[in-house]
Fold this sequence. Notes:
mainly alpha
Amino acid sequence: MFGIGFQEMLVILVVVLIFFGPKRLPDLAKSLGKGIAEFKKASEEVRKGIDEAVRETDNEETETDYPPPGDAASSDPPPPGDAASSDPSPSGANESPPPPSAPKG
């Protein structure tokens, strides 16, 4: 426990007993126990809060990395200066020529 051996713990207890006296020692131990319990409870709540924040961040990253299928149709329209979205000519003059096809064997 915290790297403290039996002998060190015994010395600490003797010093506390001498400093506070035998009458106040039980009250001191009780308040120390309550303080440690409250500290553990608070640290567990902080740990849960951090875990929730990390989980929410992971969920947000997952949603932005991989949009659901079928979402491509509802994506933003192309910018206004785009040739494909603005008034295409019926003759197809703006279209590029088809790529050359491979010879059939």
